[in-house]
From TrEMBL:
Gene3D superfamilies: 3.40.50.2020, Biosynthetic Protein domain, EreA-like (biosynthetic domain), EreA-like, domain 2, PRTase-like. It comes from Mycolicibacter heraklionensis. This is Erythromycin esterase family protein. SUPFAM superfamilies: EreA/ChaN-like (SSF159501), PRTase-like (SSF53271). One of its GO terms (biological process) is response to antibiotic.
Length: 678
């Protein structure tokens, strides 16, 4: 949740596995042209042909090649002085011609050479077949991407000589400026993605190997019109959707989805949506009661969550759930101090009271690392009881952090990173190592309570160490700090599983099973998102890699509604309107099914899984919502079928209610015309 600054140059964000996948994504954005007998797809050879074949196959349209040759500047062939298209149309880049002082004779020589190559390719590719007639047709020009757009411009100008009724340009990746330029030249432009900054078309692909002449010949000879087109993405998803009232799938679906998984990660696409929290809590109740899950591990700080854990297990001094949640004071408090979590904590306390044996109780734990100072205090408090001399040493080591304000980890990180304060890395490590070394002697006292207290202290010491590294890394790069945080979550989850396995160690006892509550951006597999190009990891990815089929990832989405969020970091909770999802997003696709509340499993191959496997925009609202910069602030590209094992969609959602409702939050519930009603 903490904001960080990335001071490094951004790396390429690869979105598409290859050109074929890019074509399937494009096809999903061109459904308005599907099944029409006046549509023809032309792929710019060679790179555009694999993309165009997928488009033509999905639309049920004829496919042909349109050949454009770049006119490389003499001695600087990487610069396009212009382009030559089928039919002999030449388009020049005047800036390059003037800048490199290319003479008319040089241009003629280049054009003649490229013209011979163009004629050769037309002969090879078509194998004697005549070009497809385009007069009076709607022609979709497809390439694997646009950079300067010179080749596409030559194609458009040459194509106009054939008098088509309409010209449409469709590409997987291009700069926004180039897409806008072409929007004024043709009838329709579909740019599936517009990476920023844009450096090269190939950076959007994992596999951008050169397309051979033989591959082009094979694709053009393979009929793209395969009878009646298959179902659209919307139809495929609608057919696979299972009704999930209030966002809770039926028990049969949950049984099939979860099976024997030890870890079930349940996400949320915002930190302030009532339905996400309520459905997740209801699913978790079922997992605890019917499937034997014994813990909830939340995207929350360890000390605050452990206070809740003590309450639900009948320990500590808190008398009700509200008091147990009062440790969540740091922004954004509403993430855990809200009515849904309060009610769940009350239920968990009652469930544990009914369970009898302490070893069978379900706990509530935190995975996050923002509790630098509170975790230090927890370590000292534990040692004061167990080993006063060790407590003195811990207090002396942790005093290194005293030059910053209480629980102000960012201030510590800034000072340590830029030399404005000491680094306390050595002290944090020394304290963790000493506590680990003495753990055996502390654990010799019998009883679950003693073992739990030691585990709590060890996790707090571990959190201090990782938080110290995290806060220093915040000022070296966003990806570095993000990865440290999610790696800490994964390490904490591993430690919690091992601890709970030990607690329930008995002949024939099943292994511990944990439910994780976190944002979609942590629960989803980063390898299915554009962030993987930056080297970003997620908890979901790490859990999948470590536990395989013993883990399940579930994500939530919504189309529109309201949300509890702040306008800036540290700001008050506001009741905000969530804008309808953008075109080309997974949320818009799910909304188009016309179903209000449903779930789709992506575990098994199916037409729906294939539809959800295409790259689409994906919305993520954290604790801050900035609708004025919706696209830039809250969307990224992802392949949902690879990101999650199941997706739950709730069409319209409402804001999560904080326990402390402010006048600002209440005012957001009123329509803009209140009280006049106009």
């Amino acid at each position: 949740m903490t904001e960080t600054t990335d001071v490094r140059s951004p790396r390429a964000r690869r979105l598409f596995r290859d050109r074929r996948e890019a074509g399937r994504v494009l096809a999903g954005l061109l459904t308005a042209y599907r099944g029409r007998d006046d549509v023809i797809v032309l792929g710019l050879a060679r790179g555009g042909i694999p993309v165009a074949w997928e488009v033509a196959a999905a639309l049920g349209a004829p496919l042909d090649a349109f050949i454009v040759r770049k006119l490389g500047a003499p001695g600087h062939e990487e610069f396009a002085a212009g382009a030559l298209a089928s039919g002999g149309r030449v388009v020049l880049n005047d800036d390059v011609v003037r800048g490199l002082r290319i003479s008319p004779q040089q241009l003629r020589d280049i054009a003649e050479r490229e013209g011979r190559e163009l004629a050769r390719r037309e002969s090879v590719y078509r194998d004697g077949r005549p070009p497809v007639a385009v007069a009076g047709k709607t022609v979709i020009l497809v390439d694997d991407g646009l950079a300067t757009g010179a080749s596409m411009l030559a194609a458009v100008q040459a194509l106009r000589d054939a008098e088509p009724a309409h010209i449409v340009i469709a590409v997987p990746a291009a700069p926004e400026s180039t897409c806008r330029e072409f929007a004024g030249l043709v009838d329709d432009v579909v740019c599936a993605t517009m990476p920023t900054p844009f450096r090269a078309v190939g950076e959007s692909f994992w596999d951008f190997s050169q397309v051979s002449d033989e591959e082009v010949r094979t694709l053009l000879a393979t009929p793209a019109t395969r009878g009646e087109p298959g179902p659209t993405a919307v139809e495929a998803i609608r057919g696979a959707a299972i009704d999930a009232p209030a966002g809770v799938p039926p028990r049969a679906m949950l049984e099939e989805l979860i099976g024997d998984a030890r870890i079930v990660l349940i996400g949320e696409s915002s930190h302030g949506t009532h339905e996400f929290y309520a459905a997740r809590a209801e699913i978790t109740r079922w997992l605890i009661e019917e499937k034997g899950f014994c813990a909830v591990a939340a995207e929350a700080d360890w000390p605050d969550a452990y206070r809740v854990n003590r309450y639900v297990r009948g320990l500590g001094e808190d008398t009700d759930a509200d008091a147990a949640l009062s440790g969540f004071e740091r922004f954004p408090a509403w993430m855990w101090r809200n009515t849904v979590v309060r009610d769940f904590v009350d239920w968990l306390r009652a469930h544990n009271e009914r369970s009898g044996s302490p070893g069978r109780q379900a706990g509530f734990y935190g995975l996050d690392l923002y509790s630098l100072h509170r975790s230090m205090q927890a370590v000292i408090s534990y040692l004061e009881t167990m080993d006063p001399a060790a407590a003195t040493r811990a207090r002396r080591r942790y005093a290194c952090f005293d030059h910053t304000g209480a629980d102000d980890g960012q201030a510590y990180g800034y000072g340590a990173a830029f030399g404005a304060g000491p680094s306390c890395e050595r002290e944090a490590i020394e304290q963790l190592v000493e506590l680990q070394r003495n753990a055996l002697s502390y654990a010799q006292r019998d009883g679950l309570t003693v073992a739990d207290a030691l585990f709590d202290a060890l996790q707090n010491a571990h959190t201090v160490h990782n938080a110290e590294v995290y806060y220093r890394s915040m000022f070296s790069g966003r990806v570095t700090s993000w990865n440290l945080r999610d790696q800490h979550m994964a390490e904490t989850l591993d430690a919690l599983l091992a601890h709970l396995d030990h607690r329930i160690d008995a002949p024939g006892a099943p292994p511990a099973r944990i439910v994780v509550w976190a944002h979609n951006s942590h629960v989803g597999d980063a390898r299915a998102t554009e962030m993987s190009g930056d080297g970003q990891l997620t908890l979901g990815q790490l859990v999948r890699q470590r536990y395989g089929d013993a883990a399940r990832l579930m994500g939530f989405s919504t189309y529109s509604g309201t949300v509890t969020a702040a306008s800036e970091w540290g700001g008050p909770a506001e009741h905000k309107v969530v804008r309808p999802a953008l075109n080309g997003s997974i949320e818009e696709l799910l909304h188009a099914t016309g179903k209000a509340e449903f779930a789709v499993s992506t575990l098994a191959p199916s037409e729906a899984t294939a539809a959800l496997g295409a790259v689409r925009l994906n919305r993520a609202i954290g604790v801050i919502y900035q609708p004025a910069t919706e696209r830039q602030s809250h969307y990224f590209h992802a392949r949902p079928a690879d990101q999650f094992d199941a997706i739950i969609h709730i069409g319209t959602t409402r804001a999560l209610e904080p326990l402390e409702v402010t006048s600002l939050w209440v005012s957001g519930q009123n329509p803009e015309t209140y009280p006049s009603g106009l």
